[in-house]
Prior knowledge:
With about 170 residues, the protein is an alpha+beta fold. The protein has helices spanning about 5-20, 35-45, 55-60, 90-100, 115-125, 130-170, and strands spanning about 20-25, 50, 80-85, 105-110, 115. The protein has 2 domains: about 5-125, CATH 3.30.70.1730; about 125-170. A 5-stranded antiparallel sheet has the order 2-3-1-4-5, with helices on both faces. The N and C termini lie far apart (about 95 Å).
Amino acid sequence: MDRAQKEKLVEELGQIFESSGVVVVAHYEGMTVAEMQNLRAQMRDAGGAIRVAKNKLAKIALEGTPPASIAGYLEGMTVLGYSEDPVAAAKVMDGYAKTNEKLVILGGAMGENALDPAGVKSVAGMPSREELIASIVGCIAAPASNIAGAIGAPASNIASILSTIEEKAA
Length: 170
């Protein structure tokens, strides 16, 4: 890799660190290509991405970015999982680490907040952005459906009373 390619990679990593809601750092030593492809596919489905980069270049890219605190985790064979959704990358990495002991979560960052492995696990337990939106929509829609039911109930009650009176009269 020549100097221009390294500079381009540092710039790309810097943009990733700036725009990501969460970045998770893990060791992946011993993982097969198929396992790594599976992890990449799961992360892509969740709206995130996986990146393997030289630690030295990643440390340079981290300088001056919100997740600069994760530089200490960049030792050995590391992989970066990241997503704009502040929960997605943590969920995927934590879930994958539960099924594959070769992926060991070292920590991460959510904005400027450093996360240890327990912090990544607790972020992974939070609802995702889509789940939060769905629950908010459900809360907003519930009163409207209750009001519609309450408004419609008297009319149906009157209709059933009238049909009962009509049957008795006949």
